[in-house]
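ingest -> validate -> predict -> emit
validate: passed (alphabet ok, no gaps, 156 aa)
predict: started
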Amino acid sequence: MKIAIYPGSFDPVTNGHLDIIFRASKLFDRLYVCVAINPGKKSFFSLKEKIKMLKKSTEDIPNVEVIYTDGLVINKAKEVNAQVIVRGLRAVTDFEFEFQLATANEYIDPNIEMVFLMTSLGKGFISSSYVKEFYQSGVDISNLVPPCVIECFKEK
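emit:
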C-alpha cells in the first residue's frame, strides 16, 4: 500500500490546497492531510477549525484522512507509515524553501521520498495569506476557497 502525507498550516485550506489533495489522492492508496502546527507562525484559525474545514472539504475523497502534528512532519510520516511527503509548488520562489526542506528531511530519514506537484493552471497565486487579506478587505473569495471556509470566516 502506497501511503503519503501532505502537510501544511492550512490557515485556511484553499482551492489550491484542494487541487493538490485531489490529485495526490489519485496517486496514493492513502493520503494523510496533516495540519502542521508551527509555533513560529501566528494562526488566524485554531487547530480545531482547520481540521473541521479540511474534513468538510475532503469528505468526498474516501482515501483521505485529516491528522495533525505539533512535531516534525517527517516523524509524523514515519508514525503513519508514509513512504512519501507530498508538497505543492506554486512558483519558482517556492522551490528554494522546498529544496532545503527536502534535503533536511532526507538527512533525517532517506527512506521517505518528497514528491512535488505543480499547482494547476490558474491556482498558482492562491495562498492562505492572500485569502485572509482579501476577505478582510471585502474581496469576494468564493472562487478561492471551499464554502466551509467562508462560513468559518463569518463565525470569527
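The domain at 3-155 is CATH 3.40.50.620 (Rossmann fold).
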